[in-house]
Amino acid sequence: MTNSRCRAAKTFSAVPLVGVPLVGVPLAGVLLALFLAAGAAAQDDPLPSWNNGQTKQALLDFVQTTTAAGSQHFVPEAERIAVFDQDGTLWVEQPLYTQVVFAIDRVKQLAPQHPQWKTQEPFRSLLTQGEDALADFSIQDFEKVIAETHSGATVEEFHQVVKDWLATARHPRYHRPYTELVYQPMLEVMQLLRKHGFKTYIVTGGGQEFVRVYAEAVYGVPPEQVIGSAAATRFELRADGQPALIKLPKTLLVDDGPGKPEGINLVIGRRPVAAFGNSTGDREMLQWTQAGRPAHRPGRLMMLVHHDDAQREYDYGPDSKVGPFPDSLLELARRSGWNVISVKRDWRRVFSWQTP
Amino acid sequence: MTNSRCRAAKTFSAVPLVGVPLVGVPLAGVLLALFLAAGAAAQDDPLPSWNNGQTKQALLDFVQTTTAAGSQHFVPEAERIAVFDQDGTLWVEQPLYTQVVFAIDRVKQLAPQHPQWKTQEPFRSLLTQGEDALADFSIQDFEKVIAETHSGATVEEFHQVVKDWLATARHPRYHRPYTELVYQPMLEVMQLLRKHGFKTYIVTGGGQEFVRVYAEAVYGVPPEQVIGSAAATRFELRADGQPALIKLPKTLLVDDGPGKPEGINLVIGRRPVAAFGNSTGDREMLQWTQAGRPAHRPGRLMMLVHHDDAQREYDYGPDSKVGPFPDSLLELARRSGWNVISVKRDWRRVFSWQTP
């Protein structure tokens, strides 16, 4: 059965039969008519990968209430800004952030040009133990690895390195390119919002230049709508007279936690009306979104993805090193009226290639 | 005579009469028809405040060549990015940058709360000598004044201070609000580009939050398309539980000279196809714009405003402390094929309220 036929079958029971005269019509014709009607209904659903329920309804209500002419909470099109965390909100972040896997691979790839890494920590551990070394890594160790693997090249050269890596790297569990591990339900949310005049921004703790490489193709988000942790660059005229922007081993913006509203203000200069995240690093972004002008508050939407589906994806939360979702965040969400998305309950399918 | 009638009269001679049967038609009717036709022609001119000539033609050719379907140098709409310096390119920067005038006024306004300024440099000099003190200012002096007058408040509070100041401040020569001292010809260029799918960005050495206050109303440029020198901010939860972004006395981005392409990459992540400036601080932005992919080069536009009209505006260049345009820049422009806009020759009027 194809996905679209599955969808049609599932929404079948929701098709209203009121007013359809059935007497005297051949059975095959009735079935065909019902099937077509069900198909049409499924096509009209802007969120087909979501199960019906409170969360899906909250999404639909938000779009209606902020965009319908004459609505009390109408938001002018220019102010329709929606922000999305990436890791754990738009794509899989387990068992390791994708960009960390990239950095480890990059250390291995660059090792022949850096013989000193054989004895220099944290590179020595990474080269001998691989991912296992990460358990003992300090923030400073991470910074060293990012500095060495993400700087020195021009911005364009760095883009090409990331592009080449994405073409061959595969996720250890799903054995697919990382760019196929995006959450289909969230893509549908982005599309629904854009269809209603929203600008969708990615606001990620990950590297801005890393995410820009695939954000347009994968999420439909152009480079100017990707806000991420950013390194400083240096403009220079090269020997051939051509200018270049060199990535420096110097952090300009840590776009995580409080850095998210700071980055949003720097790049957008407007307060979002919708914000989506999945962990403590997104807390301040949701608080900032919610605390807009009082008159607008009912027209704001704050959502957190809760990963509770070990079968189709991962089940993690309070104790995870990657994308922690502690009870205090759950409690804050409850107190603040934020919506918590349950992967298990709310998503009919997680990935586009999964049968619902 | 109103401006629009002036325009009609000027373009009158350009109206083709071929095919219009004049015999037997009453003279008044002919004149009326000609007048209406002339009016229509003027309305069709997207750059009515520009004199016909090479520069205007270069603007029109650029738009045609980058946006006409099938053109060899066609630029997809998503990549149509045009960047504009502000001071001296979009509005008057003489005799002092507007934001410097604001900072001086702000020092005077805040002085009662800072009694120590009476003896502390550079504030003492500013308070006793006003603008005259600037002649002896070092970069560090400026930084101190900006740090004290542009930080401490929330972003919204700072916006309000700027708004209040703009409402009452007047330019010493024109006796008008600074926001009325924008160059009408450049507004027409921005409008023409936007009409053809370009996104117009301001890329200014001035303060990003300062310019955002009026950019939308004055230039039609929304806050997310204003890139400027930026201070770091700090997110904090206030006593009432409301989050706030506090402006810090710490520079994040100096958006001038090489900082312009760096800022463009940070915020846009695409290379512009058109760049407008007027001084050495814009050189790298124009170089960066020009050095895009070789195949695109003929579809790039680089322009520098040259202030050579003391009568209607100002005549300054090599020796100006504000917005210098040295001979070396003129030479670079010539060598690189950049267009130099002569205020005197190219602009029919400088301001919207001037009769051409």
Let me know the average pLDDT of chain A: 88
Separation of the first and last Cα atoms of chain A: 11 Å
**Neighbour order of strands in the largest sheet of chain A:** 4-3-2-1-5-6-7
Total number of strands of chain A: 7
Strand content of chain A: 5-15%
What order do the helices and strands of chain A follow? HHHEHHHHHEHEEHEHEHEH
Q: Name the structural class of chain A.
A: alpha/beta
Helix count of chain A?
A: 13
Quaternary organization: homodimer
Q: How many strands, which pairing sense, and closed or not: the largest β-sheet of chain A?
A: 7 strands, mixed
Sum up the structure in keywords.
homodimer, 356 residues, alpha/beta, seven-stranded mixed β-sheet, 7 strands, globular, disordered N terminus
Description:
The structure is a homodimer of 356-residue chains. By secondary structure, chain A is an alpha/beta fold. In chain A, 40% of the residues lie in helices and 14% in strands. Chain A contains 13 helices and seven strands. The first copy, chain A, has helices at 3-11, 27-44, 54-67, 98-110, 123-129, 139-150, 155-168, 184-195, 208-219, 259-267, 283-290, 327-336, 343-346, and strands at residues 81-84, 199-207, 226-237, 243-253, 274-277, 301-306, 339-342. Chain A has a seven-stranded mixed β-sheet with strand order 4-3-2-1-5-6-7, with helices on both faces. In chain A, helix 1 (3-11) crosses helix 2 and helix 4 (98-110) packs across helix 6 (139-150). Chain A is globular and about 65 Å long. At the A-B interface, helix 9, strand 3, strand 4, helix 10 and helix 11 of A face helix 9, strand 3, strand 4, helix 10 and helix 11 of B.
